[in-house]
Design brief:
By secondary structure, the protein is of the alpha+beta class. Helix content is about 15%, strand content about 35%. The strands form three sheets. Strands 1, 4, 5, 7, 12, 13, 14 and 17 form an eight-stranded antiparallel sheet that branches. Strands 6, 8, 9, 10, 11, 15 and 16 form a seven-stranded antiparallel sheet that branches. Strands 2-3 form a two-stranded antiparallel sheet. The protein folds into two domains: about 50 residues, no CATH class; about 200 residues, Jelly Rolls (Sandwich), CATH 2.60.120. The structure holds calcium ion. Calcium ion binds next to loops.
């Protein structure tokens, strides 16, 4: 395990242990760690026995797809429903057996993922998001396939506008990197092929946005509009731009998170997956 990943994994363990008010050897050092400003939005004091940080600790969480919280499936099973654990019930589903992605266990830091075949696998639901200004995270890798692939496409509630379009690759564009659609393809500097990344899209809902990979330096971008999207999708889109790759998690907030909030989510994801 890389040092940085180890530190965050250790920090997460400290938070859980402290929240349970257990007396641990080395607890003196643990108190110092708890004061490090990596996790904001905690409800109350960790030393007072409240619950540890999760992405739901931060206001505005609309969608939380987490492969490690899928229940009732075994390795290799088709995924008919990827349940939203945000509490909002925005589950993504697939009624056609051959178009269901595959649940795979023990893939990323020992945790399961959902695998998409790049042919017809995708999950869908009616458009549901409520704010163009938003922040979206995905933990994803691409393993080949065609030029244009979609990780997640989220449309405006009751409408046909896609406010969030995260692409695993826009190889038809300049660099073959991940990116978004905002009136045209806008690419990050980072390629997803064969590597796990946390990708992050933070937009004011008008034209300004940032693309960030693995909690690195945000890349400032501008766009000129949104996409026509009739159905929200994961692992592909209604135009058959299908993902060949794996998704561990997707998180969507209906507002622009602060830098501290984004750091907290990124660090939590890193503690879960130790993927960079
Ligand atoms: Ca298939």
């Amino acid at each position: 395990m890389k040092l940085r990943a180890f530190i965050f994994a250790a920090l997460a363990s400290v938070l859980v242990v402290s929240a349970m008010a257990l007396v641990q050897p080395g607890g003196f050092a643990a108190k110092s760690v708890l004061r490090a400003p990596h996790y904001v939005g905690m409800r109350g004091s960790a030393e007072g026995g409240s619950s540890a940080f999760t992405p739901a600790s931060i206001p505005g969480l609309q969608l939380w797809l987490d492969a490690s919280q899928i229940v009732g499936l075994n390795d290799g099973d088709p995924v008919a429903t990827w349940n939203d654990v945000s509490g909002n019930g925005f589950d993504f589903v697939q009624g056609t057996g051959s178009a269901r992605p595959t649940y795979k266990t023990g893939i990323l830091n020992g945790k399961p993922i959902v695998r998409f075949d790049g042919v017809d696998d995708k999950l869908t639901r009616a458009n549901f998001i409520t704010s163009a200004a938003s922040t979206t995270f995905a933990v994803v890798t691409r393993s080949g396939g065609s030029a244009f692939q979609e990780v997640v496409v989220l449309g405006a509630s009751g409408g046909s506008t896609g406010w969030v379009v995260l692409s695993a690759s826009a190889a038809g564009g300049a660099g073959g990197n991940w990116g978004v659609y905002q009136g045209g393809w806008v690419e990050s500097l980072t390629n997803l092929s064969g590597v796990w990344k946390t990708i992050r899209y933070n937009t004011d809902g008008a034209s300004a946005f940032t693309l960030t990979t693995n909690n690195g330096t945000p890349e400032s971008k501008t766009g000129s509009g949104f996409a026509t999207i009739n159905t929200s999708t994961v692992g592909g889109d209604e135009y058959n731009q299908m993902l060949t790759g794996d998704i561990a998690a997707i998180l969507h907030y209906n507002r622009q998170l602060t830098t501290d909030e984004m750091n907290s989510v990124e660090n939590w994801l890193l503690a879960q997956y130790a993927h960079y």
